[in-house]
Amino acid sequence: MFEKISALIGRMTECGAKRFYAKRLAPNDNSKNQIYLGGDFSALNIIPHQGIYTDSDEIAGSKRDRAKARILFSWVDEQGLYEAPNAQLILYPKYPEVRMSGFLKGCRNAPSQVLKVRDEGRIMFLGVTDAGRVLGYAVDDKHPLAKELASRTELAEVGVFLEIPTSPDDGGSKVQLLRKLQEIHHKHWIPSQKLGADGKVYPYVARNGGGYTLEAELGIAPNGYAEPDFLGWEIKQFGVRDFAGYVPKGPVTLMTPEPSGGIYKDLGVTTFMNLFGYKDKNGIPDRLNFGGIYSYDKSPHKDTGLRLTMIGYDRESGKISDIEGGLALLSRRDEIAALWKFSSIMDHWNRKHAQAAYIPSMFRPGPPAYAYGAKVLLCEKTDFNLFLRAVASGVIYYDPAIKIEGMSSVSPKTKRRSQFRVKHQSLEALYQKAEEVDLLTFEG
After folding, report:
1. Which of 261, 395, 271, 275 lies closest to 328, judged by CA?
2. What's the pLDDT score for residue 222?
3. Which of the 8 DSSP states describes residue 296?
4. How large is the C-alpha radius of gyration of the chain?
5. CATH number of the structural domain 172-444
6. pLDDT class for 228, splitting at 50, 70, 90?
């Protein structure tokens, strides 16, 4: 039995965990009623999952669509790991809330004696690995770990969780991030670079190296899973002309998801471009473009005839009414030209944006180098409903840059970039908490 939280963290660290959390379990948090993870979707950032999907349950003779997400979950003890193959998240968009279920089923050494009862004071500890696996350990109210947690008044709240630092001195993920950004700021000009999958740093000469250079300094290597960049924080750099006024050069690109439905997905981008694209305005022959600004429920774009709306969203309540709906580009005949299903775009938003750091950068040519400013914006506690409200109010807009060259050839070349953007001064509307931190005065 683990006598100290530090011993449990040490064991989870041996198993690959990098981030650690605790949740105080309410009486209804049990294997029968599932474990409540919050009245929004921010838990999707804390707990990595394998993508959101929908299925239908037959209840009282009627079908009900529910959104779910499988998670790679294992219980841990001093001897080993014990996979819970049926662990999953269940999303209830109409409330909204997220719950976890299936964490005991099919697991040969799960803490059933703790999670099948309704006792007060129970605690569930979680460790999260960089590879997207979640490790769990649960105790009752009499366990030494529960008593120690009750005495820890310094722990930061992240949704329904308490964040546990790896050691008493590391201060949690926010402090660790700010310490690292402070080091990077003090380096001043850093040669443009990119961290390879092999862990080595390579020179990078293209003009879009600001993000790659910052990621290399933070030790963020390319990976095959869409989790946040640094200890649960999404890192977003933006270009400025100088560090005096910190005025951004342009809008912030929040994400670039490809459509998951509509003509674009079902019939292909070439058909989509033939129907809604337009000839290049600079006279480049044999090329079709698709661009423009698309804000919620505005008139159809004059070049494409499409408008942006949301299907299955109740604007008055600010909630999803149909999980199978999504953000949609509609033609003048109300054809769905492109659709970003709520399930797919929710998946991306809450994985990558529940905690985000926005860092200003300046570029210096020949040889290319970047410097990073002292004033950084830290944004926390978002959820997907805030994103949808921002779309509905026009704060977030669609700004694509799609083209096809060599349309008449056997193999046309396509460039696809479906961008959802926001003006920098509107970022705070997407989060419940935002603060500007001056790295020159930060003492972590």
Report:
1. 261
2. 61
3. B
4. 24
5. 3.30.70.3570
6. low
